[in-house]
Write a structure and sequence with these properties.
about 20% strand, Endonuclease I-creI, 3 domains, alpha+beta, 10 helices
Length: about 300
């Protein structure tokens, strides 16, 4: 069983300043790496596209006197040429020690005694994070780490009131309820204009609509009311009403923790419906994006139990 932050503490026992150590830790979670030479000596490096060379120059200034150089070069991928920039440090015994912690078997892992702070989270986010403001979603491209490592990182984020979970391909996703907390945490460290898209946030990107209001929209539409009249009655924009009627509901869902039921749900329980054509209760569940039918039942309770067992 993995040790968590709550079991073991980690201090900066190296010759780096606390700020330097945070930058290195955040980078190692992101685009940074520690390389080992044939002699056994180790150095830290970080690669970015050339348009972010200002970001690497900042690393160079902040990590002095360990800094060695920032160089640009041509890189070819899929038959196209791209300009890349790379920051490297001098070799140092502390990088060798970090290499042993982060690469125990030459594969990068998250150390058991890792302890994040806002700056290290910000550097990690600027390196490998993304902000999809229309979906109110932040995520980290952590597919190179194990699921166990990613779950440990989610524990670290929770210390800063950021609820996250491990999704497909071990990508860490920040829950919608913590989206603003995540953006606000890294915002003070954003001093480079090319990262502006990562800290953009709007409190009311979409009108939030509960199940009851959404059902009311359909009822008024079936009664012959025009979308403009419906929008006025429910206090929402016409585009919001149009989205609901077209089935584009995800971006208007309630932000509560309670699972949102489909509009045609008659049981009050997710995945359980009344089949009026056969006079039976039906249960279903989604598996890998496909709906799997669990059968028909005489009572709602039987259908709920079948759904619970499948879940």
């Amino acid at each position: 069983m993995r040790l968590s932050y709550y079991n073991i503490g980690m201090t900066n026992a190296f010759s780096f300043t606390d700020k330097q150590y945070s930058i290195i830790v955040g980078s190692l979670l992101g685009d940074g790496s520690i390389s080992k030479q044939s002699s056994g000596s180790c150095y830290f490096s970080k690669c970015q596209t050339e348009r972010r060379i200002q970001y690497l120059n900042w690393h160079y200034d902040e990590l002095k006197p360990y800094s060695s150089s920032v160089n640009s070069y041509d890189n070819y991928a899929k038959g196209k040429k791209y300009r890349k920039s790379n920051f490297i440090t001098h070799v140092h015994e502390d990088f060798k020690t970090l290499r042993n912690k982060w690469y125990p078997n030459d594969d990068k892992v998250v150390p058991n005694d890792l302890q994040l702070d806002p700056l290290s989270i910000a550097i990690w986010f600027f390196d490998d994070g993304s902000n999809e403001k229309h979906a109110r979603l932040c995520k980290f491209a952590t597919y190179c780490f194990s699921k166990e490592d990613c779950e440990f990182l989610c524990q670290q984020l929770f210390r800063f009131n950021i609820k996250a979970y491990v999704g497909d391909k071990n990508i860490i996703r920040v829950r919608t309820e913590s989206y603003k907390n995540m953006v606000d945490l890294v915002r003070p460290y954003m001093i480079w204009p090319f990262f502006k898209h990562k800290i953009v946030y709007r409190d009311a990107e979409f009108d939030i609509m509960t199940d009851d209001v959404a059902k009311l929209v359909f009822e008024m539409h079936n009664d012959g009311l025009k979308q403009k009249e419906i929008a006025q009655k429910v206090g929402k924009g016409i585009s919001t009403v149009s989205d609901i009627l077209r089935g584009n509901r995800k971006k208007h869902l309630s932000l509560s923790n309670k699972p949102t039921l489909a509009l045609n749900n008659t049981s009050g329980y997710k995945g359980v419906y009344w089949d009026k054509n056969r006079n039976k209760w039906t249960a279903s569940i989604k598996v890998n994006g496909s709906t799997k039918n669990l059968g028909r039942f005489n009572t709602k309770e039987e259908a709920i139990i079948a759904r619970e067992l499948a879940a």
